[in-house]
Design brief:
binds NADP nicotinamide-adenine-dinucleotide phosphate; single chain; alpha/beta; eight-stranded mixed sheet; globular; 245 residues
Length: 245
């Protein structure tokens, strides 16, 4: 059965490759890029896509607007929260990697499946919530990838009618990964697209962390319910948006 999927950050890298793969399989794909120029580039790269939404995910208002535009297009079967930054100032890492997926999850009409791009680097991350409240500049990329894993597991716990999972794509040769990255590029996007559309019973699960189609051990802070709740309330304080129950 054909599905409708939104992929954030699909102008380049794994987002573009996931979107292209899904469109090539005949699914209806909506792209997302930081601005209209990058949006046009995304559409050129994935001509089979249905539509492109623009909005800079380092900006709270623009991110809210991405959610409103997505809702105006109708309901999605799946959303892949892929956009991310690595070499960027800490404030930007926090907004794009942690806060934007939170806002989009809260505001986009609940799809059937949610997929969040984490990283094996989350294993070295710290939830670091107290410091974060005092000083966002202390956040690292690894912390942000732990946050998004916490978010995916919190969503799985709260929304029993949704499959919410996270993916470590491996260290792959995108602009972020660098050309010398050792892992397979195709394997770097297959798990996301599989979780988004497959009817395989192994893909219809929730609250799991995958690498190359298999479940992996994760930082136990991610599934700590007390920590998840504190994380969600911090996101609520920063954005003014409560997590919908
Ligand atoms: N590559 C790896 O080895 C690796 C490993 C582990 C996890 N990951 C994760 O996988 C995901 C995809 O990474 P990638 O390797 O494909 O990175 P990439 O090639 O740098 O692509 C990142 C995408 O996110 C978009 N983006 C960044 N900041 C944005 C913003 N403020 N607003 C809107 N869009 C924004 C980029 O848009 P522009 O092109 O316009 O900048 C681009 O389309 C990320 O979440 C990353 O953390 C990657």
């Amino acid at each position: 059965m054909m599905a409708r999927i939104l992929v954030t950050g699909s102008a380049d890298g794994l987002g573009q490759l996931s979107a292209k793969s899904l469109a090539d399989q005949g699914h209806q794909v909506v792209l997302h890029a930081r601005n209209s120029e990058r949006g046009r580039y995304a559409k050129q790269k994935v001509p089979g896509a249905e539509h492109v939404i623009s909005g800079d995910l380092s900006d709270i208002d623009e991110t809210k607007n991405v959610a409103y535009e997505a809702n105006a297009l109708g309901r999605f079967d799946a959303v892949i929260h892929n956009a991310g930054v690595y070499r960027a100032p800490p404030e930007q890492i926090f907004m794009v990697n942690t806060i934007a997926p939170y806002i989009l999850t809260c505001l986009i009409s609940k799809p059937k499946r949610l997929i969040y791009l984490s990283s094996s680097m989350h294993l070295h991350g710290r939830a670091n919530l107290e410091n974060l409240k005092k000083d966002i500049r202390r956040i690292s990329y690894s912390d942000s990838k732990l946050h998004v894993l916490m978010l995916s597991m919190a969503v799985a716990r709260k929304w029993s009618d949704v499959y919410s999972n996270a993916v470590d794509p491996g260290w792959v040769p995108t602009r972020m990964g660098g050309y010398g990255a050792p892992d397979d590029l195709q394997k770097g996007y297959e798990t996301q697209t599989w979780l988004a559309v497959s009817n395989d019973s192994r893909a219809k699960v929730s609250g799991r962390y995958f690498h190359h189609l298999t479940e992996r051990l994760y930082n136990p802070q991610a599934s700590d319910v007390m920590l998840q709740e504190r994380f969600l309330s911090l996101c609520r304080d920063i954005t003014g948006i409560p997590f919908p129950q």
